[in-house]
Inverse folding.
């Protein structure tokens, strides 16, 4: 009897631990969120003057959320839809933006003589926002953006700096954007191999062969060269010429014209360079996002499956794709279902490749250009394709007779 009670007590403890672990998992998932389901907008700078310190942070938070939301929609909507949304459509005036906010962070907070300044990062729930846009029939663009390698070069009082330390220009770019930017950004390591393969002259003269070969070391195809030429007129007065060029597919893309800036009274060099970085990065964001758009299109799937497990695999795969905004089940039967989905892609071949990567066969339906038949690719289908390829190569089923 005693043994039974001890054993029973042990089982209760094990069950209790399982419940606690499940609770912790669910709690942590809801509190910390899913980064893949998040739009993260960084580098929101807020400055307030003559504000009561008790309310300054709250007001700054509201302004940061509005600014981040505006920047996000500018990225995912077309210019026409963005203008209509903010200046014509009354729905935005009634919209509770905070309902889409999943979190925010504050950096470099500073109170000083009734003035307040801080940098914000604001996170939005991607799925909630997509669902709202789809529900309100607002087309959006989901961008699976290419990474870009940033190479900052600095000339200060005629001293040219690329890898030599300190390269303040490079350090500030890295501090501002590495790991916390909407666009995937990579910086070179600055190690011995980098020093051997790329010089200041190679970068400043935009030697494309040198730059593209250098970028290939990092597995990158796109490069952003940012340049700053600084002259000091006295201890706290600076003049700078700033430039930026994108190198892509062995050609230059000049999105930013060289710009001359002067420091404000009392502005230190770090802040002067950061001001230039913000100007360049804002124009770069607009250019890069505009040229990497994938349009969200409404398409229909006719799904064929042999059993429930195949059905679940197909529908779960489609729902979990980053390119998919929303999926609706229109009809469901024993071996066939109809789906409606918003999917972001450029060409039909991209859509085919996207699903076939997950072993889902997709064929255009003759009834409707926006309708596709999908099913799981099985081993027999693969074998048939291989056999047909071999037949084609060997001359079978061909109108061409090969005589050796």
């Amino acid at each position: 009897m005693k043994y039974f009670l001890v054993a029973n007590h042990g089982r209760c403890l094990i069950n209790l631990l399982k419940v606690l672990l499940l609770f912790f998992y669910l709690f942590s998932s809801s509190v910390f969120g899913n980064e893949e389901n998040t739009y993260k907008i960084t580098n929101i700078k807020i400055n307030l003057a003559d504000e009561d310190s008790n309310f300054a942070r709250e007001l700054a938070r509201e302004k940061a959320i509005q600014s981040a939301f505006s920047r996000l929609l500018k990225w995912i909507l077309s210019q026409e839809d963005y203008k209509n949304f903010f200046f014509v459509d009354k729905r935005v005036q009634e919209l509770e933006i905070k309902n889409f906010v999943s979190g925010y962070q504050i950096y470099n907070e500073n109170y000083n003589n009734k003035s307040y300044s801080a940098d914000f990062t604001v996170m939005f729930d991607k799925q909630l926002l997509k669902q709202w846009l789809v529900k309100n029939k607002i087309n959006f663009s989901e961008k699976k953006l290419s990474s870009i390698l940033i190479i900052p070069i600095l000339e200060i009082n005629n001293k040219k700096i690329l890898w030599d330390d300190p390269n303040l220009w490079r350090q500030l770019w890295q501090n501002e954007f590495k790991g916390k930017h909407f666009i995937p950004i990579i910086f070179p390591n600055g190690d011995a191999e980098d020093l051997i393969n790329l010089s200041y002259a190679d970068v400043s003269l935009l030697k494309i062969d040198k730059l593209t070969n250098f970028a290939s070391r990092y597995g990158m195809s796109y490069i952003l060269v940012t340049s700053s030429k600084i002259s000091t007129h006295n201890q706290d007065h600076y003049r700078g010429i700033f430039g930026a060029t994108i190198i892509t597919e062995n050609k230059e893309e000049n999105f930013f014209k060289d710009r001359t800036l002067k420091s404000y009274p009392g502005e230190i060099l770090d802040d002067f360079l950061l001001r230039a970085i913000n100007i360049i990065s804002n124009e770069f964001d607009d250019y890069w996002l505009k040229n990497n758009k994938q349009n969200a299109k409404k398409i229909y799937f006719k799904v064929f499956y042999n059993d429930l497990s195949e059905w679940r695999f197909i529908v779960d795969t489609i729902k979990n794709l980053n390119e998919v905004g929303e999926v609706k089940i229109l009809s469901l039967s024993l071996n066939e279902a109809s789906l409606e989905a918003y999917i972001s892609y450029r060409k039909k071949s991209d859509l085919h490749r996207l699903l076939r990567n997950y072993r889902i066969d997709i064929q255009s339906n003759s009834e409707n250009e926006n309708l596709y038949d999908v099913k799981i690719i099985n081993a027999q289908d693969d074998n048939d394709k291989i056999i047909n390829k071999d037949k084609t190569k060997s001359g079978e089923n061909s109108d061409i007779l090969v005589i050796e």
